[in-house]
Amino acid sequence: EVVLTQSPATLSLSPGERATVSCGASQSVSSNYLAWYQQKPGLAPRLLIYDASSRATGIPDRFSGSGSGTDFTLTISRLEPEDSAVYYCQQYGSSPYSFGQGTKLEIK
Amino acid sequence: QVQLQESGPRLVRPSGTLSLTCTVSGASLGNYYWNWIRQPAGKGLEWIGRISTTGSTSYNPSLKSRVTMSLDASKKQFSLNLSSMTAADAAVYYCARQTVAYTNNWYLGWFDPWGQGTLVTVSS
Lengths: 108, 124
What we know:
The complex is a heterodimer of chains A (about 110) and B (about 120).
Chain A: E1 4-7, E2 10-13, E3 19-25, E4 34-39, E5 46-50, E6 54-55, E7 63-68, E8 71-76, E9 85-91, E10 98-99, E11 103-107
Parallel strand pairs in A: 2-11
Antiparallel strand pairs in A: 1-3, 3-8, 4-5, 4-9, 5-6, 7-8, 9-10, 9-11
Chain B: E1 3-7, E2 11-12, E3 18-25, E4 32-39, E5 46-52, E6 57-59, E7 67-72, E8 77-82, E9 91-102, E10 106-114, E11 118-122
Parallel strand pairs in B: 2-11
Antiparallel strand pairs in B: 1-3, 3-8, 4-5, 4-9, 5-6, 7-8, 9-10, 9-11
């Protein structure tokens, strides 16, 4: 099983700043089959990024994904108040699919 | 616009079986895979398993002995049964659609969209 470890656990930034969330895999993620999701309280996760760097439909270009192999990054440039949420990475390259433990982003 | 909606009992007795159904609207079930994911209160996400429209299934080994999934394409529904429930199984249960994508080859991709989730409590 591929174990995904996210860092940091919590991030506190101001509007307009840049957020960087890391996701490390215990083994190489097959073909960079990695997604990022945003989850706000009481809501289901929302797809942001798939295949490590492709933005999902309707997602602002402030959100970007990068990385390959075992190291992946979600970057949110020019933070806005509505970006406050928990962010999860997920690999779908091998079964069982797995998620990172989440990174909580707080906008000051 | 594709929408998914979970339904089923919110309260399950210890040692009982959880039965949930996910109803899909706005699209047929074909050409996708259909998944269940759960999230205990205040915790992260755990993949439970998936089913295709041909009935092919794949389950998380951590739950495999207790999970059964089924699909009824005519009703645009797929279901989850989880037996021998304990307090550790209390969670929000989500259903989600999984894309079948193609670059150099076909592959099972990301989850989108998700249902709104249903909170399941385990108590006598």
